[in-house]
Amino acid sequence: MSSSTVITNIATLVTNDPSLGDGSPLGLVRDAAVVIEGDRVVWTGDSSKAPATDNRVDADGRAALPGFVDSHSHLVFAGDRTEEFNARMSGRGYTAGGIRTTVAATRAATDEELEANLTRYLSEALHQGTTTFETKSGYGLTVADEARALRIAAQHTDEVTYLGAHIVSPDHADDPAAYVALVTGEMLDACAPYARWIDVFCEQGAFDGDQARAILTAGRAKGLHPRIHANQLSYGPGVQVAVELDAASADHCTHLTDADVDALAGGRTVATLLPGAEFSTRAAWPNARRLLDAGVTVALSTDCNPGSSFTSSVPFCIALAVRDMGMTPDEAVWSATAGGAAALRRDDVGRLTPGAYADLTLLDAPSHVHLAYRPGVPLVSGVWKRGVRAV
Ligand code: NIG
Ligand code: FE
């Protein structure tokens, strides 16, 4: 039999089950305990009523919440883009063109270098409370380089996304249609075995609405589920294509018309907001309040990548979303846990109720609100991933 652990004396427990505790969407239980058996949560409730177990951990008045679900990152890459960031902070704008710099560095890197880089950013994320993460290809843009990125990513997560359609490969700059044919043909065949998702950067300078639809549809025919980079730098068709194809998530959602918001509210597609990108590109913030008030499901993620958002910190993104995007601390914490799970169409992560994976983050603070209230402070003092203490 697997061993069991009870974590007691949790001042504030975020369960994300509204039928528990205070009845809010976060299902807050005060003076709580969680019982873990093997890799799952088996019991959640009042600390005084916790059943006896093999091991006991005293949270000593700390807050606990589900491990963060970072549903959007680009972690298979080499090099960095310090100069580009410096130039932006001196007034230059962000364009998708910088992606080519990372493509060149990534192609030149060995498998071992890519693996070491990925492991480093995953460790950063874990120490900041992330227990589930999605990551993408998109810095290879050849059949071999995209398949290699996905193979490396798949050794670390089930949530792997094929993004051969990040930009038109520099090798096909004169013939974008030929690149789309490659992405939907030979490259897709080589990449599909390693991936769960297919993504496309639908934006001026990358792929238009018709190309995005064709790419996502081709992926779906190979068993991949669509998600999309949509409406990041400008208004455009991305969100509408996402809802039309029942994509799990439309990511960025910075420039939205009323029709885009209505489409999201009327479908199942989650709007994933990535405030690290607006921070690092000094762009206007996405309006989370508008989406939430329309009834759209919102996720919050890092978009960790060396160009537009070089942060692996979900707590940082929560603080930005609360301060600048109109979210309450409760909403931001929900979006970074249950929201991320929804964006990955998962119900086994992002909540701390019986049956869910025992992915739990302990804060050196009495409440989850401190994630926004104490920005920049390393509050994560313990992390359990699949029932095992990892931090
Ligand atoms: O999500 N928008 C497209 N892709 C990334 C940026 C990648 C880069 O600049 O390297 C993003 O922001
Ligand atoms: Fe991205």
Automatic annotation (TrEMBL):
Positions of N-formimidoyl-L-glutamate binding: 139, 305, 307
UniProt enzyme class: hydrolase
Keywords: Cytoplasm, Histidine metabolism, Hydrolase, Iron, Metal-binding, Zinc
Pfam family, one: Amidohydro_1
Known pathway: Amino-acid degradation; L-histidine degradation into L-glutamate; N-formimidoyl-L-glutamate from L-histidine: step 3/3
Binding site for Zn(2+): 72, 74, 229, 303
Residue stretches making up the Amidohydrolase-related domain: 250-368
Localization per record: Cytoplasm
Reactions this protein catalyses: 4-imidazolone-5-propanoate + H2O = N-formimidoyl-L-glutamate
Cofactor remark from the record: Binds 1 zinc or iron ion per subunit.
Entry-linked InterPro entries: Amidohydro-rel (IPR006680), HutI (IPR005920), Metal-dep_hydrolase_composite (IPR011059), Metal_Hydrolase (IPR032466)
Record GO terms (molecular function): imidazolonepropionase activity; iron ion binding; zinc ion binding
Gene Ontology biological-process annotations: L-histidine catabolic process to glutamate and formamide; L-histidine catabolic process to glutamate and formate
Residues binding Fe(3+), per UniProt: 72, 74, 229, 303
Predominant cellular place of this UniProt entry's protein: cytoplasm
Cofactor(s) required, per the database record: Zn(2+); Fe(3+)
UniProt keyword Magnesium, yes or no: no
Its biological purpose: Catalyzes the hydrolytic cleavage of the carbon-nitrogen bond in imidazolone-5-propanoate to yield N-formimidoyl-L-glutamate. It is the third step in the universal histidine degradation pathway.
PANTHER family in the cross-refs: IMIDAZOLONEPROPIONASE (PTHR42752), IMIDAZOLONEPROPIONASE-RELATED (PTHR42752:SF1)
Record family assignment: Belongs to the metallo-dependent hydrolases superfamily. HutI family.
Name of protein: Imidazolonepropionase
